[in-house]
């Protein structure tokens, strides 16, 4: 009878915990996601919010995903995931769904930016809206990269 060695049976990659989270690729995207998402929320909140229906969705997506990503990051830092495969599926689904929501928010913010250029707003609001659009698209890209990298890990 041949018995399998423990090294041969555990070929799955383990999720890091503690400060090692910041050194591995899929999880290293989490801090930039949180920071860029916070910038989107801050920049939109700094404008006069001329289009509340458009920019309200942007603020909701950016703030809620920032808070949920922060909770997810803290759970990885404290090791609550315990290297569960279900946790990786949850992480991939969350980041994939958030990428879709952020893409819709980025497009709506870009629309609000274009509309604010034509309106009687101050040039400062146009610059803030432009910066919020830029960071919204960057955050969308970060969420997409995280979702695919955790999926293919």
Question: What keywords describe this structure?
Answer:
single chain, 153 residues, 75% helix, MALL protein, MARVEL-CKLF_proteins, MAL
Would you summarize the structure shown here?
With about 150 residues, the protein is mostly helical.
Architecture overview:
The chain has 153 residues and is mainly alpha-helical. It has one domain (36-152). The chain has six helices and no strands. It has helices at 6-9, 25-28, 30-46, 52-78, 85-118, 123-151. α5 (85-118) packs antiparallel against α6. The radius of gyration is 19 Å and the shape is elongated. The two termini are 33 Å apart.
What order do the SSEs take from the amino end to the carboxyl end, as H and E? Answer: HHHHHH
Main β sheet profile = none
Uncertain segments: 7-11
Tally of discrete structural domains: 1
* Content-based structural category: mainly alpha
Helical run tally = 6
Using DSSP, what is the number of strands? 0
Overall mean pLDDT stands at 83
Taking all Cα atoms into account, the compactness measure Rg is 19 Å
N→C terminal distance: 33 Å
Give the strand content.
under 5%
* Helix coverage percent: over 70%
Shape descriptor: elongated
Pfam family, one: MARVEL
Organism: Corythaixoides concolor
Membrane topology: Multi-pass membrane protein
GO molecular function: structural constituent of myelin sheath
């Amino acid at each position: 009878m041949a018995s399998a060695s423990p090294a041969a049976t555990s070929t799955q990659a383990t999720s890091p915990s503690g400060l090692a989270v910041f050194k591995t690729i899929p999880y290293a995207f989490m801090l930039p996601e949180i920071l860029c998402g916070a910038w989107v929320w801050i920049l939109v909140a700094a404008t006069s919010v001329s289009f509340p229906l458009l920019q309200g969705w942007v603020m909701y997506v950016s703030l809620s995903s920032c808070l949920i990503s922060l909770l997810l990051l803290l759970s990885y830092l404290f090791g609550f995931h315990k290297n569960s495969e279900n946790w990786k599926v949850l992480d991939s689904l969350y980041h994939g769904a958030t990428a879709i929501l952020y893409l819709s928010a980025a497009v709506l913010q870009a629309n609000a930016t274009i509309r604010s250029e034509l309106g009687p707003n101050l040039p400062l609001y146009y610059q803030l809206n432009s910066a919020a659009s830029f960071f919204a698209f960057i955050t969308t890209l970060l969420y997409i990269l995280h979702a695919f990298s955790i999926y293919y890990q």
